[in-house]
Amino acid sequence: MTIENQTARLAGFLYLTVILTGLFSLMYVPSQLIVREDPALTFHNISSSVQLFRLGIAGSMLCYIAFTLLPLVLYRLLKDVNGTYAKLMVILALISVPISFINLQNKFSVLTIIEGAGYLKTLNAEQLQSQVMFLLNTYNKGILIVQIFWGLWLFPFGYLVYKSGFLPKILGVCLMLGCLGYVVNVFSRTVVPDFSDYTIADYITLPASIGEIGICLWLLVMGVKNKKIGPVPID
Predict the structure, then answer these.
(1) Residue 202: CB atoms within 10 Å
(2) How far apart are CA 37 and CA 103, in angstroms?
(3) Domain edges within the chain
(4) Which of 88, 121, 170, 204 could anchor a disulfide with 156, C-beta 3.0 to 4.6 Å?
(5) Which of 37-41, 124-128, 185-189 has the lowest mean pLDDT?
(6) Positive or negative, the Cα torsion across 187, 189, 192, 196?
(7) Residues 90/23, Cβ–Cβ less than 8 Å
(8) What is the phi/psi pair of residue 91, to 5°?
């Protein structure tokens, strides 16, 4: 196996780690524990399944660690296509990591409330439930902010995939469209309070999902056979 294929497979593995841990922590765990319209039930669910909530936090940490390494590995693979775009891809991806980790503090604060810290005994049940929902909503707003960079890095990444000559162009197009979808989604949810009620809200990030899952599987299974680099990169 060539060094390029080893790099591609490593990138595919890291991408798969990001996808699986992201699905677990951002979709599965909340679907099992959080009921937006019912603070009491949400409090009860988390209290009775604290370990699952903790696993969700741990999953997020693994996701962000893998996402720190992913653009660095992709840079090694794609820097000869266009050095400037490769650097931009890394910068935009890495900006999201500290924001994501800081945002996790909201979930640790939920744990503090759920596990009944002594200084919280002066608060009644309704107040505690309200605090938990406030922290969870604040966490979701943080995710909305970080989605800007989850989207922006996809444009230079998609461009590099499209121009590479050794990765499918259609996946590059999907990634670039995914950037647009993420950005539109963030601003729409910020400006239009009930944007999530619109049908388009369920599909606007679909190109990103197709592009990211597709490139993940391609790198993991196919690698970069017949890799050919043309002119010297523009830095």
Answers:
(1) 9
(2) 22
(3) 3-146+213-222
(4) 88
(5) 124-128
(6) positive
(7) no
(8) -60, -50
